[in-house]
Each structure stands twice: as structure tokens, then as C-alpha cells.
Amino acid sequence: MTGPRDAKSADRADQADRAQREERAEPAEPAEPAEPAERAERDHDQDVDEALALVRDAAAPPADRSGGQPGERTRGAHQPHEPHHHSHQPSHSARSPHSSREHQPRHSHHSHQSTPWPQARAIAARAAAAVRTRAATPVPLDRTLGLVLAAPLTALTDLPSFDTSAMDGWAVAGPGPWKVRDGGMLAGQSGTDALADGEAMPVATGARIPREVTAVIRTEHGRTDGKGRLHAEREVLHGQDIRPRAQECRSGDQLLPAQIPVTPAVLGLAAAAGYDSLLVVPRPRVEVLVLGDELLTEGLPREGLIRDALGPMLPSWLRALGAEVIAVRRLGDDAKKLRAAVESSPAELVVTTGGTASGPVDHVHPTLHALDAELLVDGVEVRPGHPMLLARLDERRHLVGLPGNPLAAVSGLLTLAEPVLRTLSGRIAPVPYLAPTRDEIHGHPHDTRLVPVALRAEPQLVAVPLHYNGPAMLRGIAASDGLAVVPPGGAKPGQELEILDLPWTLPSSPGDLGAGDVATSNTRTSTGNSSTGNKRGKASGKASGRTSGTDGDRGDGASSAGGCFT
Ligand SMILES: Nc1nc2c(c(=O)[nH]1)N[C@H]1C(S)=C(S)[C@@H](COP(=O)(O)OP(=O)(O)OC[C@H]3O[C@@H](n4cnc5c(N)ncnc54)[C@H](O)[C@@H]3O)O[C@H]1N2
Ligand code: MOO
């Protein structure tokens, strides 16, 4: 962890803390039964995350309201629950993980064979590694930010490419005093006559200097007399303040190896070294299929309908994970549309949201069955998000099924989509890092939990678990810096936990995030025709939340130029 990040994180943690304390000071009770903890104890079918979130929200003691910490909660309110059984049957899965040679899921408490969390991530990375990716192509420099170098970056020129003055002052030849020549050299001027011994020439920083120059004297270290002669006021060392040609590199030197992500610094180096375009790994194309008849794209929730939280959230996160999002389509709960969309998708990764469970309109499993897809992961031992799945559609395409509950979808995104996209986009796995949890975190008896945390420097780095972490809630994660990986059984205060960074991406214009990316009904957003995606239109940030399907209106320049760092 770097210093600035710690400081930023501390701010975030403070804000999150404050926001959550303020919230708990409000008299309004959540619209849940009075004693949610007891209810959860009785109801073994209730997901433990949901129960914990309710307990934490509703049962915050008065002391907590007057300054308690967000990780504190009522003792005894949540003993480990019985394993959660869910009814989703693998029988309708085309080719289940059982038949896969990729792994042998251990027999778990679940009614079907779900995969342990670490193994699920490894399977996802391996599955993507087996895909033959599109060939690397040269991409204009200004559209490579966040992509990965497909070849080493080799200097196309010496740097500097000529002897250069490092300071404003005089270039001198031989010992002084020197006769100052009329005129001089500014940066960008092409050449001058040779300098004789005993001559000086005014120069600006960055000016090309002739070979004979033995030193540069800074303006503040020399003085001219009435006869136009320059006197040094300090000892002059041979070669001082001259940047000799090829000081940084010679033409042909390797500046960076392949597989390095293009950061702003890489962009600058590449430009300095003479590049107009870079050979980069193309972004894997992703199509997002948002399922659910209950979803609204604008206005307030009403009459059983709710706002779609995933359509606005996923495209930016997918881009930050290395993807080119070619479309976000809303298909309702229509099995035929889903099948047609999956069948015809040109994307290397299809991401569905919702419909992964076994409800009457949960069409993901039957669709995969109908398409004879191979289920590589069918459920993961993680909370939230355990119904997530990964399927191989054909030798080029995979599908990640994210559960509909929004935090469960984030869990699926980071568990399954992240390793797939990381591998397809040529990125190297981030080095895992640990932080001790400040507070106790209750665990699921058998499954890994992913819990939103704010990182804080106190003064050592600590992870502060946040409230409102139920599967249907985004409030905790919206205030968080990352997700703590809590092993089965939970974590004691001070216990080191792996932290999953959230893929943050900054918009390059107001139109780059959210609704502007979402195609309503079956409108496909334009894919453009370049290897990395979309022409950088004048992202207009359409307030309507609809796209017209033209490049200029897509407003997703973030995929090529908006900064896509995790
Ligand atoms: N009988 C069982 N029921 C459920 C199980 C189970 O194992 N057996 N698992 C529960 C868990 S855990 C989850 S998570 C969900 C997963 O369900 P689906 O993936 O089929 O998702 P839906 O039923 O379509 O939606 C669940 C929930 O999320 C809301 N939703 C859906 N899409 C969005 C969106 N884009 N933005 C905001 N909210 C969304 C949806 O309205 C539902 O409330 O299943 C449980 N049930
Ligand atoms: O608990 Mo579900 O897995 O809401 O994600």
C-alpha cells in the first residue's frame, strides 16, 4: 500500500464511518420484523448474509449510536446458522461440473456440487487461458490506456536524440572567460555553427547543443561584463548540465517488457520514444444481458417494480477489468430472447444478471442446457453470490451468470468475471494483499464471505467492516475500498484478511458512466469497427439514459481513453 492511498482510504473510512453512524442515529427502523436475529435463527433457509445485515442494521445498540464503530454489533445475535440449502438442481444443467475434467468439486453442504471460492477463481482463469485470443493489433496511442502491451516496448530512437542543455544559461567550449556569441539556441531549433574554444552561446533548457560544448553554465551562475565576455561565478565541471545523446536509451533498447499495462507514464514514455501506436492485447468483448421483468430504467420504484442497479454498474466495472462492453441488453424474463441473445452473441464473454436460481422465470440454467453449454462452475461456496456460474459456450466464448441480488452480482463479478477478463486481456494477476480486520467478522459456517470494508491507516493499515452488506444491498460496498475475504467460520479482530480491490474506473466525461451505456429493449449499442472498440465520440452523457446506437452517442470513451485501472 502506498502512502497516498492510505490517506485517501482513511478519508473514505472516516466518511463511511460517519455516514453509517449518522444513519444509525436516525430513529427510523428498517422495515423488517422487530427481532430479525431471532427470526434468522429460526429460519435456516434465510441466507446468513441477509440475516447478518438485518441484525447489524436493526439491532445497533444505543451505545453504538453515540459513536460506536461500524464493525461492532450485538453479541450472541448471530451464532453460526445451519447450512443454507437451496433448491437449485443441477439436473437441468447441460454438462455439469461433475463431468468436467477441470476440477473435482468437493462434496459440499449444498444440494448440488458447488465449487470452493479459491478454486472457482482458478477455474475461471484456466478456462480463459484455453481460449485463443484475437491477434494483437496496433492501436493509436491515445486509445491504449489501460490495455496491455502485446510486445516489448523498444526505443525507436536514442533518448535524448541529441545532446541537450539541461538548464537555461550559456553553452561554453573550453576554459573561460568566454566570448558570448550573438543569438543563441532555443528548444526546438535545429542546429548552429560549431563553437570554438573560448566561445559561449546563450541556450534554453532543451536546446540542441553542438558537439564542442564542454559545459552549460546556468544563468544564475555566470555574469557578462561590458565587453560581452562571460565569467563563471562557480567552478565549471566538464560536462555539467549537458544531457548527452542516448543518456536514457539507445535506439533498439527494450524500455518495457510485454504484458505491462499501459499507464499514463507508459503513454508518455512511448510517445517520447517515437511511437504513434502500440501493439496491445485487444480488449475481450463482453455483452451484458440484464434479465428481469421487474426492472425500471428510470424514476422511482413502484408497484413491485425496482430500479435496475446492475445495468448502470456493470459496464464501468467490466471496462475497468479490461473488457470492451459491446452492448448492455435488457431482455426481461423472456427465455426465447435469452437463448437467441446468448446463441448469437459475438462477445468472448456473455454476462447475464439474475435468473441463476430455480424460480419460475430463472431461465439461465435451462438456456445453457438447451445450448449444450458446459457448466464449469455451477454455484460457488461464497456469500453473497453462491448461485453464480461459469459456462463454456463454445471454444471461443464463455458465459458468467451473475445472481440478481446486486451485491451477489458484484461477488460474481470479482470471483468469476475478473479472472476470465484478466486472462483474456493479458493482465497479470494482482499481488494479493492482506489487511487485519479491525473488528470481528462473523463467518458463514462453510462458505467464504466477501465483506465490504473501508481501509484505514490507524496508523497501520486496518480493514473496517462496513454495515449494509446484505446480498440485496449496495450501500456498504458503495462506501467501501474493497471486499475482505472472510474464511468459513469468520475472523477475529486483528486477523489478516485478503482484500479484493474494487475495479475503479474514472469517467472521462459525464456520459461515460451509468445509464448512458445502457441500451434499452433490444437495441444493441454500436461496436465500432476497431480492435479496441469504440470510436471516441463526443460522449454526450444523454440524460435520457438511452443510446441511439451511433458511435458518437455511446459515451463510452472510457473503454479506450477514459482511464481503466483497477
Ligand atoms: N429457492 C431458492 N431461491 C433462491 C435461492 C436459492 O438457492 N433457492 N438463492 C437466493 C440467492 S442467494 C440469490 S443471490 C438469488 C439469485 O437469484 P437469481 O440470480 O435467479 O436472481 P433473480 O431472482 O432474478 O433476482 C434476485 C433479486 O435481485 C433483484 N434483481 C435482479 N436483477 C436486478 C438488477 N439488475 N438490479 C437490481 N436488482 C435486481 C431481483 O428483483 C430479486 O429481488 O436467488 C435467491 N433465491
Ligand atoms: O446470498 Mo445470494 O448468494 O444473495 O447472493
From TrEMBL:
Spell out the residue ranges making up region: Disordered: 1-129, 503-566
* The EC number(s) this enzyme carries: 2.10.1.1
What reactions does this protein catalyze?
A: adenylyl-molybdopterin + molybdate = Mo-molybdopterin + AMP + H(+)
- Locate the compositionally biased regions of type Basic and acidic residues: 1-27, 36-45, 72-82
Tree of life domain: Bacteria
* InterPro entries in alphabetical order: MoaB/Mog-like_dom_sf, MoaB/Mog_dom, MoeA-like, MoeA_C_domain_IV, MoeA_C_domain_IV_sf, MoeA_linker/N, MoeA_linker/N_sf
Q: Which UniProt keywords apply?
A: Magnesium, Metal-binding, Molybdenum, Molybdenum cofactor biosynthesis, Transferase
Co-factor(s): Mg(2+)
Q: Which residue intervals define the domain MoaB/Mog in the entry?
A: 287-423
Q: What spans are recorded as compositionally biased (Low complexity)?
A: 120-129, 520-534, 557-566
Pathway(s) this gene product operates in, as recorded in its UniProt entry: Cofactor biosynthesis; molybdopterin biosynthesis
* Stated role: Catalyzes the insertion of molybdate into adenylated molybdopterin with the concomitant release of AMP.
Report the family membership.
Belongs to the MoeA family.
Protein name per UniProt: Molybdopterin molybdenumtransferase
Q: Which source organism?
A: Streptomyces cavernicola
